[in-house]
Amino acid sequence: MKISVASGKGGTGKTTIAVNLAVALAGKDIDVALLDCDVEEPNGHIFLNPEYTESVPVTVPVPKVDFSRCTYCGECAEICQYNAIAVIPDNVMVFPKLCHGCGGCYHLCPPRAISEVNREIGKINSGHGRGVEFVEGRLNVGESQAPPLTKRLKQSVSKHEVVIIDAPPGTSCPVVEAVSESDYVILVSEPTPFGLNDLILAVEMVRRLGLPHGIVVNRADSGDDRMLKYCESEMLDILMKIPFDRRLAEAYSTGKLMSEIDRVYNENLFNMYTSIKGKISDARACDYQR
Predict the structure, then answer these.
(1) What are phi and psi of 169, to 5 degrees?
(2) Cβ-count burial of 186 within 10 angstroms (0-12 exposed, 13-18 middle, 19+ buried)?
């Protein structure tokens, strides 16, 4: 079972929910893995303090031109939608950081003057912490292509009873890659005007992807009631409400878990997991009957 934790913006408590949910399930002897797919700024390790056992580089293919065979016909530049290759009368310029590794230039080059070489864009680190298998992606500084690293990260984890994916914030391509193929998406937000705006965008995203989803309202006793009215009007499931608690903010700032403040949070998170598991089972039963 794959459960993604996402949010329309950063700072809403997404990583807090992902990490604490993973630890709560591990505490119930559930085989669980946590994937930190926020590859531009991974921070799950701060709370799990894992012992790393493996670090694997991730590469993408980029074109290399053999000028002894190139005829400067320009077909490679025409096929490239990302302007990663440009042809002028006596030269071919390749911009590796713009290349998405689709291989179009390689396959369509008439004189077969283009080959592919690997370029490292980041690393995948694996380890264990607090009873959880932890896998994180780290995009190299200056790189812009998070989706290829996220895709490899999702493929690298071994089979577990539950896989929790900590998605990056927002609704752009890296988030879509992170949450795709999930059985359920937990959307974390807060009852503020900005929170509501970004929640609406996140809900539209998961609906377009056809993914079941529910809402965790963080700092639920702050802000106003417009978010709750929106959830009611859109018939969105409120999975859990977390009150504003200064102790939680202090715990987060020092790398502590919610359960280290009050163990009731672990029970609440496990109950939320049980509810999600039931929703997934009901949905699969309905699909089977059809």
Answers:
(1) -75, 160
(2) buried
Write down the pLDDT at residue 290: 67
Cβ(229)–Cβ(238) below 8 Å: no
Per-residue pLDDT of 79-96, as tens digits, reads: 999 999 999 988 999 999
CB–CB of 25/1 below 8 Å?
A: no
**Distance of alpha carbon 149 from its chain centroid, rounded?**
10
CB 3 within 8 A of CB 183: yes
pLDDT at 179 over 90: yes
Distance, in Å, from the CA atom of 131 to the CA atom of 264, rounded to the nearest integer, reads 19
Average pLDDT over residues 21-31: 96
Provide the whole-model pTM: 0.90
- CA angle (231 as vertex; 234, 186 as ends), nearest 5: 105
Work out the angle at residue 146's Cα, subtended by the Cα atoms of residues 75 and 184, and round it to the nearest 5 degrees: 120
β-sheet with 32-36: strand ranges across: 51-65, 114-129, 132-139, 32-36, 162-166, 2-6, 184-189, 213-218, 238-242
% of the chain beyond a pLDDT of 90: 82
Angle at 48 between CA 180 and CA 6, to 5 degrees: 25
